Amino acid sequence: MANVTLGEMTNDPQRDARLRAANRRTGLILLAISLLFFFGFIVTRFITNEAVSIAIVGGAVLLYLLVAIGRHLRK
Amino acid sequence: MSTIPHDVIVGGLPHDEHAHHPRGIMRWITTTNHKDIGTMYLWFSFTMFLVGGMMALTIRSELFQPGLQIVEPEFFNELTTLHGLIMIFGALMPGAVGFANWMIPMQIGAPDMAFGRLNNWSFWLLPPAAIMLLLSMFVPGGAAAGGWSLYPPLTVQEGMGMDLTIFAIHIMGASSIMGSINIITTILNLRAPGMTMMKMPLFCWSWLITAYMLIAVMPVLAGAVTMLLTDRHFGTSFFNAAGGGDPILFQHVFWFFGHPEVYIIILPAFGIISEIIPTFSRKPLFGYASMVYALAAIAILSFLVWAHHMFTTGLPTAGILFYMYATMLIAVPTGVKVFNWLATMWKGSITLEAPMLFALGFLFLFVIGGFTGLVLGIVPIDVSVHDTYYVVAHFHYVMVAGTLFAFFGGTYYWLPKWTGHMYDETIADWHFWLSFIFFNVAFFPMHFLGLAGMPRRVPDYAQQFTDWNMVSTIGAFGFGLSQLIFLTAVVKCIRGGAPAPAKPWEGATTLEWTLPSPAPYHSFETPPVVK
Q: Of B233, B319, B463, B530, which is the most buried if we count CB atoms within 10 A?
């Protein structure tokens, strides 16, 4: 069982800057993934074999989900 | 999961002196505060719920008896399409995002969402999209009328209303992706010291996984409707059979988005229920880790079953068998969740305030919806009842009695924290019981109608379906009117009522209850330390 206590007030500009940079990095990575799915999905439609194109998109999405969710499960 | 001692108050009133923000309408237009934006999401969601509900009542009025009474068949089809789109993209998804905005920062001990301006944008994209969707009824050719699943070739041939629908979906999709980026970043980077992933409240876990799913499927939907748009106006033939395209391909793509979308809508509801049940059972959630793993399993499996919506399209036998068994498999993690909720209640000191009533209503009715989903997942039965009212009954048990009941429960649960007042328990109880009864009156008969062969999306029907349609329509109006009680309860609570203590629920254990009620405009400027 965990408890909550009042934290000490910290005013660390360097820490804030690091946090903002981390936020930007996470946000940009997620944006890149969504853009990749959007354009990648349309591009794979030009593969004449539908099964292959669906497998590529589906596989990419599943891989992303497994990595994205799976990496948090052991923390 | 983290728990708190009952007497700790963090982030108290002194922080409110920093609440410098514009007044009046500008406060709401320019706000980057997660609570303001959460409030706007929730009111937007409720407004769209009423708009979509009015459409549903028009549909039910037309179906009260056989023959054409109130609306033309073309307009009836527009209503069924818009009802689905508005409820999914306008009511349920924004509702879930509203809860996320309000509660995630407070539950993880963060001062706000990671990207305040992006958060503001995510919300303010929605009203224009909704207006565009509604205005499509008034353009030449009327609104999209091919059902919310937008199947070609019908949607390739429809008028300008379809273009407006496509643009509205693009905008709503962009809003969802922006919201998801914000939620994931907030949870990953802004958790209070000591709040490890496996100490997070389950509501936050459910939203983290939902947001990951949204990042995966919304671009797919956006891609699909973009190709629909180019088929309509730029001479491509992705889905247009006349040009060598494949309409069935659209169904694959749509349901690759559409089935995970069902779980995107229900997972936040699971999260809310997982907060309410332990609180009112006065016991910790049973099997916290297994609940997290079940959420992850449901999310991943939901991407492997899309073709169970397409059993009648002539899929190869091996494919049909795969999708049938994969569909059955989802029952396992879902069953884990239901078992854990029941085990949490087992030997608990249960009290039946409105949030718990809605949670129990959710549990009872969602299980019915889940079981009818399993029935539909069995190929021989699905072929028989495909596109009948049985399907309509099934997904309304999941979407309305599942998600909506959880949202009602969540609203009553957190209203004291949001408003600083206790809601009127009598009114809330009336809201629950009338909703519960009329929901079943409206939707249970649809199982009989579907099994008897009544097709969905028809404005007229054979005489033998009359009685149950009448019952269903009466139930629908009763359910719709019951929601005015909800509005009354919420408005009354906002305007006044008994002052709410910081922790109005004895069994509540998560971080938001360490804040005073109402929660200060800026909370957790000093990060709490979770031990």
A: B530
